[in-house]
Write a structure and sequence with these properties.
With 272 residues, the protein is an alpha/beta fold. 44% of the residues lie in helices and 15% in strands. It has two domains: 3-212, 2-enoyl-CoA Hydratase, Chain A, domain 1, CATH 3.90.226; 216-263, Lyase 2-enoyl-coa Hydratase, Chain  A, domain 2. A seven-stranded mixed β-sheet has the order 1-2-3-4-5-7-10, with helices on both faces. It has a three-stranded mixed β-sheet with strand order 6-8-9.
């Protein structure tokens, strides 16, 4: 498996599946300025790649991501991430950088899966919610922890959270900033599945392989239709579906699917 080790990320590619591991376990994978920059870079690389079929986003060392590293801005003690000689960035510029990361992740045409162990809190939770599918193990814990830090929601939480759990439950999670366990997260629909820790890798790998073998163009358009579904009328949704199907019928993948059905074999999709 080709591995690209960066300062704060490990990027692995195999059979169309890109696994991006946030790699700051000493900080529960809290996102430093370096990590934010590297996440934006790798998400843009995936967006522009026809070989990358699926993104799996996860964390090293038993945690997903504990949010932005608000308590570790001074990186001088960490030799892996030396302090920069550049002047400090304006706070609004830093937040716009996070905006770019969130938008790029949400707009990826490829299906995305968050694989969660341990904590996914603050921006870490909303990064997971930005993925199309969220799978956690029984150790996973979730919180919109911002209020405990004197902060309001960011990384798309105000948009993503109510679409996952409903407005009133979203307000409860955001205003009280409770930490909820895996069982409750699954019960309220915050995550798609919770599986035993020993089965998490195999479960996510199975989903990723199934998605990687699917029709890339059709999956990308279904993803876009669903992402837009709460912002359009039924008439507009039907029009968008019609346009998408028109595109599908012009692709080699749809022709291949029809042939495979007649020949009683699995289709082999090429993304064309």
């Amino acid at each position: 498996m080709p591995t690209d080790t960066r300062d704060t990320l490990i990027v692995e590619r195999e059979d169309g599946i890109v696994t991006v591991t946030m790699n700051r376990p000493h900080r529960k994978n809290a996102a430093s300025e370096t990590m934010w920059s590297e996440l934006l870079q790798v998400f843009r690389e995936i967006n522009n790649s026809v070989r990358d079929r699926v993104l799996v986003l996860t964390g090293a060392g038993g945690d997903f991501c504990s949010g932005a590293d608000v308590g570790g801005m001074d990186e001088r003690a960490n030799t892996a991430e030396p302090a920069s000689d550049d002047p400090p960035r304006h706070q609004l510029a830093s937040m716009r950088n996070i905006t770019d990361i969130c938008l790029t992740l949400n707009r990826l045409p490829q299906p995305t899966i968050a694989k969660v162990r341990g904590v996914a809190v603050g921006a870490g939770l909303n990064m997971a919610l930005s993925c199309d599918l969220v799978v956690g193990d029984e150790t996973s814990r979730y919180s919109e922890i911002f209020a405990r830090r004197g902060l309001s929601l960011d990384f798309g939480g105000s948009f993503l959270l109510p679409r996952r759990v409903g407005l009133h439950k979203a307000k409860e999670l955001a205003l009280l900033a409770d930490i909820i366990d895996a069982e409750e997260a699954e019960a309220i629909g915050l995550v798609n599945r919770v599986v035993p820790g020993s089965e998490l890798d195999a479960f996510v790998d199975d989903w990723a392989k199934r998605l990687a073998s699917g029709p890339p163009i059709a999956l990308a358009m279904s993803k876009r239709l669903l992402n837009n579904s709460m912002n359009v009328t039924l008439e507009e949704a039907l029009d968008d579906e019609g346009l998408s199907q028109t595109v599908n019928f012009s692709t080699a993948d749809t022709s291949e699917a029809m042939r495979a059905f007649v020949e009683k074999r699995p289709p082999r999709f090429s993304g064309r």
